[in-house]
Design goal:
By secondary structure, the protein is an alpha/beta fold. The chain contains three helices and five strands; from the N terminus they run βαββαβαβ.
Length: 119
């Protein structure tokens, strides 16, 4: 079975990429358990708790990331350098448990996957 990585690079609001990526993750989880989620660049905003998308008339799907463990999706990584570049620290409250890695560690972890899908 192939190992599949999902890389989130865009902010959650303003496009449907995050929701589409999450839908793809959930659909893929029925086929394989070798799934990894990577949050880099503006994708780190996908995991921030305390978001209020209803104030900008957006759908709230962020909380769904918090239930991924129920689907046996436990390999989640967030780029600590991307957090820092956006004024966030490693102690920021996230909707799921994600390992904090620097860019080099992210690249090394991503290289272990057979398929990489970017959203």
């Amino acid at each position: 079975m192939k190992k599949i990585a999902f890389v989130f690079t865009h902010a959650p609001h303003g496009s449907s990429g995050g929701r589409e990526g999450l839908d793809a993750v959930l659909a893929t989880s029925a086929l394989t358990e070798d799934i990894g989620l990577f949050f880099i660049s503006d994708g780190v905003f996908q995991l921030l708790s305390q978001q209020k998308p209803e104030t900008i008339l957006s759908r709230n799907y962020i909380a769904t990331f918090g239930v991924l463990a129920l689907y046996d999706i436990n390999n989640c990584f967030i780029c600590s350098e991307s957090l820092s570049a956006r004024g966030l620290d490693d102690d920021v409250d996230l909707v799921l448990d994600a390992a904090h890695l620097n860019r080099q560690q992210m690249q090394q972890s991503l290289s272990a996957y057979d398929v990489i899908l970017t959203f």
